[in-house]
Predict the 3D structure of the following.
Amino acid sequence: ARHLEMELSRSTVTGAEQQRHRPVGRRLPALVTGAVLTLVLASSARAGWDEGLSAYKGGDFLGAILNWLPLARNGDARAQEMLGFMYDLGEGVPENDWVASTWYKAAAEQGATDAQLNLGVLLADGDGVRRDEVEAYKWLELASRAKEEEVRRIALDLLVTLSGRMTETQIGVARKLVREWEQRQLVRNPR
């Protein structure tokens, strides 16, 4: 099995976290990129987000959770994505892929591309969640359209690997799910 390694952003996280790598294959990649966190910091408008991010960067994972959980429960995709990430890595909480997938899915449904990528990997691997290659393909296909080059590249690489394990019918169903998701987004967010 081919494994990719992703490094947690060196530009936004200090200490031991700088050296943590997560292999794709058995476990979910750590894909909170510096560019994404920088954009999130610049556009933060909700109370609690900045405090949570500061706590997280300082290693105060409980403080991050206490600030982000209310936001996540109210639909903040950034907070949902970060809670998924924390459960995925077991930062301040017991490692739990099922809970991580729940938070990732909430953020992914809103278009958070890192969450789409991470959810796709969890579903493709079936580690801690039910393996679902069709749903995995859907989320990876959506992540492959991300603005962030790194997310796009990883998603495309994973799609190649995943499609090798799928039938044409499964891929067709997954692409139909992508189109349906896009239609729902157009209804929710008309331009």
